Amino acid sequence: MASDNSKATARAQKAAAERAAQAKREARRRILTIGGVVLAMVIIIGGSVAFSLVKKNESDKKLEDAASGRSDYGVTIGPDDAPNKVVIYEDFLCPYCGELEKRTRDDLAELAADDKVQVEYRPFDLLSQLGDYPIRAASAFSVVLEKSGPEVAKKFHDLLYENQPSEKDPGAVTNDDLVDLAVEAGAKEADVADAIRNVSNEDWVTEATAEAQKAGVSSTPTILLNGKVFDDGRTVDDLAENLIAALD
């Protein structure tokens, strides 16, 4: 009987040892499996980040190359021989463009007057899916630029942002309002009224938009400083402050 008990005990101990060994093997397998999944995720995520960075660098380079020269679709302040060149792609309905304009207008104008920077504002249509205001406003801008010259066009540009409608109600500023703003900027009503009311320069907007798209502009405001994409800031206010600091 004692011998039978000893054998039973030995079998139980052996079975327990085998179960423990099996549990260790299973635990090790799970660890290896989880580790493999984690490693795969790291590779995938890391690859995605690297791919995104490559695509961003390619996009920035394309934009920088396309925007390196003077455009036919904008207005410029400051001398050609200024040590710094700034290009701003904008949509007249874009609230972030309005905020950037408010935060930088006076400083950029002062720096341009001091021959420290040349700034080119390039309006185009990005947000017409919200209403036709971006097309109407940019067309009106081009009419004023054509009929009244760059100085008046820049004043009109500024007034458009001072009277910018919201994205929720872009029709709040009518074509008659645009005529009034053009006259306030210094344009002669007889020169611009009909063309503004009839959105006669819509082709100009289409061409300006095509140029921006070809350059790779996909958001507004898009800023270039001395031929390089400038995106130093987490907010528009940061962007504005850092831009002026880089120029001053």
UniProtKB/TrEMBL annotation:
InterPro entries: Thioredoxin-like_fold (IPR012336), Thioredoxin-like_sf (IPR036249)
A molecular function (GO) term: oxidoreductase activity
Annotated Thioredoxin-like fold domain residues: 72-241
Presence of keyword Transport: no
Coiled-coil residue windows: none
TM regions (residue ranges): 31-54
Keyword tags: Disulfide bond, Isomerase, Membrane, Oxidoreductase, Redox-active center, Signal, Transmembrane, Transmembrane helix
PANTHER family documented for this protein: DISULFIDE BOND FORMATION PROTEIN D, GLUTATHIONE S-TRANSFERASE KAPPA
Record-stated family: Belongs to the thioredoxin family. DsbA subfamily.
UniProt-recorded name of the protein: Protein-disulfide isomerase
Species, as recorded: Nocardioides aromaticivorans
